[in-house]
Backbone:
């Protein structure tokens, strides 16, 4: 589980029992911005209420919650999140090198599969021709 | 073995007209769905494909109609096709280097195979024409299948959670102390 730093700040304050207005004042944000972050937290934790966020956040902290380095919510603003779909090794510290290796490995696996399928088809064809 | 490949060639030749139409329709449908619901990598992948492939068709590359012309085109290295595959390789490898998707590695890998087909053909005369054609043209269809699967996977994922590009993926650090 990973949250942006801003999401962590808001979740911390919800956990402390603060109201939306108090959170907005404390973090120097508008109330609508805080509500937007709370909606993102509901989506992230897959809950419908603020109480659900608090419960899920407490559980996440116990199981090793991490937060992102960037303090803003740039990913959300761009309409995307910040979770990775690829193994971490392909993101850092040398992504280009490891990604080139991954492409070569994929090509090699595909080539071996193609050759094996072709050989199988030819062998099957020869066997059927011999019998027929 | 020669008879086997001859039969396959005959099937491919007979189905050639509708295969091209099917491929065009399919890729345009993929472009529309990518523009409407796809992320950045989905849009770039299908755009790279359509720009290069449709441009090559516009230039009448690989559109020889008679069997004799086709045979002559593929009897040596098909340099026009080599150029197109090289451009696709640059596009797809570039995409795989920066996209936060798994399927782009398979697309780039398939393109490596297509380019290797040209390289092997240039280095030896022993490669059968049919095998050369299959190595070069076969990956295109598989790339379309992979792009389709990639778009379906993207549609099934929860919105606003996963990054499109490598620079949007945040590195994980230890959690701050809770006040």
Residues:
């Amino acid at each position: 589980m990973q949250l942006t730093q801003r999401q962590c700040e808001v979740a911390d304050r919800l956990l402390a029992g603060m109201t939306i207005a108090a959170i907005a004042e404390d973090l120097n944000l508008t109330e609508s911005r805080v509500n937007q972050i709370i909606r993102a937290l509901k989506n992230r934790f897959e809950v419908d209420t603020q109480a659900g966020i608090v419960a899920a956040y407490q559980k996440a902290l116990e199981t090793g919650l991490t937060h992102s380095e960037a303090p803003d919510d740039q990913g959300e603003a761009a309409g995307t999140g910040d979770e990775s779909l690829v193994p971490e090794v392909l993101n850092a510290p040398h992504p280009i090198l490891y990604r080139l290796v991954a492409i070569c490995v994929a090509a090699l696996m595909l080539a071996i599969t193609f050759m094996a399928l072709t050989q199988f088809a030819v062998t099957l064809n020869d066997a059927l021709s011999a019998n027929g | 073995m020669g008879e086997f490949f001859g039969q396959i060639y005959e099937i491919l030749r007979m189905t050639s007209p509708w295969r091209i139409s099917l491929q065009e329709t399919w890729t345009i449908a993929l472009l529309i769905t990518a523009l409407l619901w796809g992320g950045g990598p989905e849009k770039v992948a299908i755009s790279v494909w359509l720009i290069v492939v449709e441009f090559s068709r516009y230039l009448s590359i690989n559109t020889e109609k008679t069997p004799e012309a086709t045979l002559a085109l593929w009897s040596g290295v098909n340099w026009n096709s080599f150029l197109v595959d090289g451009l696709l390789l640059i596009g797809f490898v570039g995409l795989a280097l920066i996209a936060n998707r798994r399927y782009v590695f398979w697309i780039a890998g398939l393109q490596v195979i297509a380019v290797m087909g040209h390289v092997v053909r240039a280095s030896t005369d022993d490669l059968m024409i049919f095998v050369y054609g299959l190595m070069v043209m076969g990956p295109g269809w598989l790339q379309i299948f992979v792009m389709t699967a990639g778009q379906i996977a993207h549609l099934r994922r929860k919105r606003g959670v996963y990054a499109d590009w490598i620079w949007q993926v945040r590195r994980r650090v230890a959690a701050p102390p809770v006040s």
Remarks:
- Residues 63 and 69 of chain B are 9 Å apart (CA to CA).
- The mean pLDDT of chain B is 81.
- The two ends of chain B are 74 Å apart (CA to CA).
- Chain B has one domain: 18-154.
